[in-house]
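Proteins fold reproducibly. Look at a sample protein:
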Amino acid sequence: MGTGIDHRAVKPSAARRWTSFAALLALGVGYIAAYLFFSAHSQNFLVVQRNGRAMAFGETHPATSPITWQFGQNSPDNARLGSGWLAAPSYPGVRLLTQDGWIVFVTGRPDTDMLLRLDALVLTTQAVPRNTIEVSINGTSLGSWQRGGADAREPIEVRVPRSLVADGQWHVRVHVDHIGSIFGRDTGAARNGQDLLLLAIGLRRADSSNEPAR
């Protein structure tokens, strides 16, 4: 006994629905993957672009030790800064915006180890009273330091092997474990995060009597 329904017409319709669903799903996954890819690479592009600008300046303005550079609003030394920093009149030095900040410059080929000094102010919170600062040069980590509270202004000194900067190019990365939002309050117990303000850096020849401060 026939039902009057042509089953041959039903099956193609269901197949088309599944095909359309699969196509939409694939399209959605593709959009998400593309967004994540370009988001990650656009950030990397900005870092490379900013660091490249500092390197280009360094190549036309090579430095000779001993060096002292002061950072802050309208400072000409800001040209040595790569990605990650912001200068504004509301605070001294330059403020670290992300967990990684770069200083990029060029010197002559060193004939001895060098001593790099970072003068910074490390601001912390009651919840996390200490922050860890790691310094890497040309991809090699040269140590980490705890700062906050009583030693928040204590300089960080890094002994740099001459072999690490044999070509005279310096890509200095300053990494912190904790960083706060620039949109948060900056004073009192209500502060929502950590801050690092880079005030100056110095570079000089190292000798046996110049041991890095820990």
